[in-house]
# Entry
Amino acid sequence: MQQKFHIERMDRERLELALDWAAAEGWNPGLHDAASFFAADPGGFFMGFLGDEPVGSISAVSYPGDFGFIGLYIVRPEHRGKGFGLKLWHTAVEHLGERTVGLDGVIERQSSYARSGFVTAHRNIRFEWTGPAALEADPAVRGLEPSDFGELLAYDAALFPGGRDEFLRAWTGQPGCTGLIYRSDDGDIAGYGLLRPCRTGHKLGPLFADTPRIAASLLQVFRCHAGTGSIFIDVPEPNTAALQLAARHGMRRVFETARMYTPRAPSLPLERTFGITTYELG
# Structure
């Protein structure tokens, strides 16, 4: 009897499986990403099954407001070319409805996303950094404390197109995660970032800062927290100051995606985005 393909919402355990698939694809997810992803939208993760066998995944996370993001779009290699991916894709698109929707498309998939109405806004370049830390840290850089969280949400709101309070609460609380803020002379937050352990090294995301100098100060302190391991950071290409910062530190380009949106890109201050949060959730 031919096995039937069907799609179900993922629970946390299935989401962990999808992240294992992402690791096998070379995407290097964080060690503890599942809890944060699930906190963003527990109903936004879908898995395709052939009979009882899980064969594909996709996420379609809805943020409060009018924004959604598609990620974790994977069909297991032995099941590709059978139409399962297209069924997962339609499920995600239908789930997000009339929202503005974003995704980060790998090079080989960008043309198919364009046929679905997604328009490229910019490239994101993944860099790997293995350079040394600075000898002295900027005293304006401080560890993120629970009492900072309300201010952090307000700062983040100007830099991301949807509300993500629950996500950030979980994201900043990951085991092994380092959160740093930069306070200006008047005491306001003028930059922040989060470093989390991944299957290989650490990822730094987001890295938001009002100026390149503030971003550089945060980077140097994060370098200390990462030890001798690699730091990976995904830089939006329109931020030329971020690219120059990567060049000054000898970072190596290792990967790229296209940030794509439908029906149109939200207006964001990319000059303050030195590292996006994730390829999976935006």
Notes: The two ends are 41 Å apart (CA to CA).
